[in-house]
Amino acid sequence: MAFKKGNSGNPTGRPKGAKDKAQTDVKQAYQLLVENNLSNIEIWLREIAKNDPVKAFDILLRLSRFVIPEMKATEIKGELDHIIIVKPPIFD
After folding, report:
1. What is the dihedral of CA 71, 75, 81, 84, to 10 degrees?
2. For the purposes of burial, counting CB atoms within 10 Å of the CB of 53, is it exposed (0-12), middle (13-18) or buried (19 or more)?
3. What are residue 54's phi and psi, to 5 degrees?
4. Whole-number CA gyration radius for the chain
5. I need a labelling partner for 61 at 20 to 30 A (CA). Which of 16, 44, 72, 84 fits?
6. Model confidence over 78-88: pLDDT tens digits?
């Protein structure tokens, strides 16, 4: 049964914020794939690092975006009487 132009079986459309089932299924499958290969990912990164440590570090940084939230730049306006420099901690 075909709908007339401009009319559909769901005139109000998809509710705002509703998730696409196919996309949700793909995300769940990908998450399961990653979870089941955590030890392999560590092995693969070590193997890559043997020949190209910079590439392994780049991959690690790219993967980190999915775990650690990115910080946004903040603009500060005003007059400064003094400047405080904060150094990040060094991890061993």
Report:
1. 10
2. exposed
3. -65, -40
4. 24
5. 84
6. 777 777 777 77
Q: What is the pLDDT of residues 45-69, one digit of tens each?
A: 999 999 999 999 999 999 888 888 7
Say which residues have a Cβ less than 8 Å from residue 34's Cβ, sequence separation at least 6: 41
Tokens of 82: 């003094």
Show Cβ contacts of residue 59 under 8 Å, excluding neighbours closer than 6 positions: 45, 48
Give the separation between CA 90 and CA 84, rounded to whole angstroms: 18
The mean pLDDT of 29-49, rounded to a whole number, is 93
Residue whose pair of structure tokens reads 């914020």 in the numeric block: 17
Q: pTM of whole model > 0.70?
A: no
Judge contact between 66 and 52, C-beta under 8 A.
no
Q: Quick check: helix, strand or coil at residue 6?
A: coil
